[in-house]
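Suppose you are handed a protein chain with no further information: no name, no annotation, nothing but its sequence. What can you learn? This example shows the usual starting point.
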Amino acid sequence: MKRKFILLFTALAGLMLTACRTSVTTPDTGLERSMKGFELYSWQNGSQWNFSLLVGTNREKSLDEIKSPDTLLSGINPLRVRLQKKAPGQYVTWSSKETLTFPPDEIVKKVEQVCKDQGIILQIAR
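A reasonable first move is to predict its three-dimensional structure. Written in structure tokens, the prediction is:
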């Protein structure tokens, strides 16, 4: 009986710890999922368009957090690679604020196509 209790407690503790993570990689596919989707931001630096793709939360992200070197994606190709790691059916909300802006329509269309090909639901909040 004690052994069953310990086994059950260990399983429940593992489930609780897993639920606290913000993004989960599905073992069978290796693709990322997030309960609150993902947030996409963009801004121009010279002639280069930069992007940041963050796990969705209920709080507003700071510019420092968005533009952090840890989250910086310089150009459309690194963004494409990151989007291709997201599971189909995931939501990505693309928005702007303060110094953040949307790129030209040509780049927006490329991002839309990558999302469509991946089965990602892209919401653009202009």
